[in-house]
Design a protein that fits this description.
The chain contains 1 helix and 6 strands; from the N terminus they run ββββββα. It is of the alpha+beta class and 128 residues long. A 6-stranded mixed β-sheet has the order 5-1-2-3-4-6. The radius of gyration is 20 Å and the shape is globular. The termini are far apart. The relative contact order is 0.16.
């Protein structure tokens, strides 16, 4: 049995290497949260400071401030460090207000429901 050297700790799967760094957290429901990792536990529960949710609909986006945010570990799909110097969006992306992004989300959801309804109505055709 071999023991890891103290320097090897930072190459492990621990979140300790990400403490006090800006992170992107992808949640199970598809939301994308960003902020500074301040604390975590053995269940991957995390405390994010200066957190905000980035909502993207087509070419529109909005950063919704959340403040201090606690994330339950079972909802985390992915955690990754953000490079502060390279944090930029594609040129076609347009930042909009929170109200505008909510309207765009609602329209997108209605469009998806309509597509699903149409698909269901056309199932009898069996186009496969």
């Amino acid at each position: 049995m071999s023991w890891a050297a103290p320097d090897d700790i930072f190459f492990s799967t621990s979140l300790a290497a990400y403490l006090d760094k800006k992170l992107l957290v992808l949640l199970r429901d598809g939301r994308k949260l960003m902020g500074l990792l301040r604390s975590f536990d053995q269940f991957a529960n995390a405390v994010i400071e200066e957190a905000y949710e980035r909502v993207i609909v087509d070419d529109l986006y909005c950063d919704i401030p959340l403040g201090l945010y606690i994330i339950r570990g079972e909802n985390v799909v992915l955690i990754g460090e953000l490079d502060i110097e390279k944090e930029e969006l594609p040129a076609q992306m347009v930042q909009v207000s929170e109200a505008e992004i909510k309207r765009a989300q609602k329209a997108e959801k209605e469009e998806m429901l309509l597509k699903g309804l149409m698909r269901k109505r056309m199932e009898f055709l069996d186009l496969d």
